[in-house]
Amino acid sequence: MRVFDVHVHIQPWEMLKPEVMSMVDDPSHANAKSVLSSADNVVRFLDAEGIERICCINYVSPDVMGFTRETNDWIADFTRDHRDRLLPVGSVNPLHEINVRDEIRRVLDLGIRMIKIHPPHQLFSPNAYLGELWQLAEIYRECEERQVPVMFHTGTSVFPRARNVFADPMPIDDVANDFPRLPIILAHAGRPLHGETAFFLARRHANVRLDISGIPPKALLRYVPRVADLADKILWGTDWPSPGVVSPRKNVEEFLALGLGEKIERAILWDNAARLLR
After folding, report:
1. pLDDT tens digits, residue range 172-205?
2. Which of 3, 78, 146, 270 is the most exposed place for a label (fewest CB within 10 A)?
């Protein structure tokens, strides 16, 4: 069965703050640094793990994670020779840009296929454009015009300096209303505290989807008990190599072991993402 993982962290790890690196640099990820040292190594790793395509997650978070705006150029260059399999994901942080409109256009012109917004790590609410952070709307407007998906981190974060007051996905209700043609993905389906809200938003809005990365497959039906009701709006993701995620192949095998049926499995593992990210 073909697998499209929309949530893999292929990032410039040298930018990570030491306290963040200490949380992901553990024995279970001993191979991660060598895998991530080149795009060719990533592709070989995907072949070994049985993964056909991935979205390479990046976002600008100098305050919490250490990633600066240069991460966009880094991932564009990293994926340049393998864009059929490695889809670059970038970001614009309006707290760190004077002219957000020009920067989002520059970033998308690099070939970035999706924009990541991480409220607990970027330290603003998804609907902050309704107040003083009005330039945030420029990101949504440009992505809506170009039909570039915006992925929002939803749910809590355990990394130092993260602000979990921004973990609740309900403010994205405003975004979905104000930008109804904007493809929206709720990463992690709100886990662990906001799953019901994420599920509600995906059911309410035609342009909202869930990704189930970061949820242990064995616990999926506990976090998203009505998977079958939203099977056409759920995207597969693993969050590799985040804490607790050892092997993308292992996650796929555990998902298939749930016995949801071939139609649902194909939709989640491949069809939904392939249709969104042609």
Report:
1. 999 999 999 999 999 999 999 999 999 999 999 9
2. 146
